[in-house]
From TrEMBL:
Species, as recorded: Planotetraspora mira
Similarity comment text for this entry: Belongs to the LysR transcriptional regulatory family.
InterPro entries associated with the record: LysR_HTH_N (IPR000847), LysR_subst-bd (IPR005119), WH-like_DNA-bd_sf (IPR036388), WH_DNA-bd_sf (IPR036390)
Gene coding for it: hcaR_2
Residue stretches making up the HTH lysR-type domain: 3-60
Pfam families reported for this sequence: HTH_1, LysR_substrate
Superkingdom of origin: Bacteria
Keyword flag DNA-binding: yes
SUPFAM superfamilies listed in its UniProt record: Periplasmic binding protein-like II (SSF53850), Winged helix' DNA-binding domain (SSF46785)
GO molecular function: DNA binding; DNA-binding transcription factor activity
Signal peptide segment: none
Biological classification of the source: Bacteria, Bacillati, Actinomycetota, Actinomycetes, Streptosporangiales
GO cellular component: protein-DNA complex
Classification via PANTHER family: HCA OPERON TRANSCRIPTIONAL ACTIVATOR HCAR, TRANSCRIPTIONAL DUAL REGULATOR HCAR-RELATED
Gene3D superfamilies: Periplasmic binding protein-like II, Winged helix-like DNA-binding domain superfamily/Winged helix DNA-binding domain
UniProt protein name: LysR family transcriptional regulator
């Protein structure tokens, strides 16, 4: 029996709240009707999804597995709707997402040479949305930076690039030619909500300021609230008079990848992926070198 997406959405609502009453309120349906839909889904799947007792509601192992799989599946369904809507307008369009500092122009130009009738849109994305935007169809292809939740995606490594330390301009290490991880031991870190993504072998437990994007990172660092790390290429496009960029060679390199939805079948997407892979080596060897020269001048100015 095919999986009913409406029942699946109802299941996710209950699973995320672990409360039938709150889920029914948010879904704007009666609780008995919601309970019937969940029982019907359990019957369809041949497995109990929840344990209901006097202590409340918990997920079974089968329920946890379904919750893990439901997100990409529902997002993929939304992606289908988006692509059908675009096709119905009679336009051929490809939307390419990219993280800060990643140069997409070489691949776009190569692709447009082969497909001059296709409109290519480019859109900057942040780390906490890169997987979701691919799965729900807001972007067709994404230049992403690891880590990324690869569930439902096909991820192809393109190149790596060094990182730099982002320091307040009056920091004791600002203006140095290079520093080490050990030099930054104990420094407060401006980072995102997931400490496991820190690119250091010496995790900073005191990540007091959680940020989203390069702009927020620079403002917090400039205010003296901590230090951070950025991919080398991003420093070329982002400068701040109160921030200094310092190379940190023993920090792990950042991996840039190309990601597409695993279930997506599209000759246009395949052609863009081929163009991206063909231009990636040039981007890494030539473009990043030139950008680093510019970045060095910027760091000197900011420091």
């Amino acid at each position: 029996m095919d999986l009913d997406l409406r029942k699946l959405r109802y299941f996710v609502a209950v699973a995320e709240r672990l409360h039938f009453g709150r889920a029914s309120d948010d879904l704007h349906i009666a609780q008995p009707a919601l309970s019937r839909q969940i029982r019907a889904l359990e019957h369809d799947l041949g497995a109990p999804l929840f344990v209901r007792d006097s202590h409340g509601v918990t997920l079974t192992d089968a329920g946890q597995q379904l919750l893990d799989d439901a997100g990409p599946l529902l997002a993929a369904a939304q992606g289908v709707r988006r692509r059908v809507s675009v096709a119905a307008r009679g336009t051929r369009r490809l939307t390419v997402g990219f993280r800060a500092g990643v140069a997409v122009t070489p691949a776009v130009r190569a692709f447009e040479t082969r497909h001059p009738d296709v409109i290519v849109d480019v859109q900057r994305i942040e780390g906490d949305e890169q997987a979701a935007m691919l799965l729900d169809g807001r972007i067709d292809v994404g230049y992403v930076r690891l880590p990324i939740d690869e569930a439902g995606l096909r991820v192809t490594p393109l190149y790596t690039e060094p990182r730099v330390a982002v320091l307040p301009a009056d920091h004791r290490l600002a203006g140095k030619e290079q520093i080490t991880e050990a030099d930054l031991a104990g420094e407060p870190l401006v980072w995102n909500a997931d400490p496991s993504t820190q690119p250091t072998r010496r995790p900073h437990p005191n990540a007091g300021y959680q940020v989203r994007g390069v702009d927020e990172t620079l403002e917090h660092v400039a205010a003296g609230r901590g230090i951070s790390f950025l991919a080398r290429s991003a420093t070329v496009f982002y400068s701040h008079p109160d921030v200094s960029y310092v190379p940190i060679p023993d920090l792990s390199a950042e991996q840039v990848c190309l990601a597409v939805p695993a279930a997506r079948t599209s000759p246009l997407v395949d052609d863009f992926v081929a163009a991206a892979r063909a231009t990636a080596e040039i981007t890494e060897e030539c473009g990043n070198y030139e950008m680093w020269q510019l970045g060095g001048e910027s760091a000197a100015t900011n420091g």
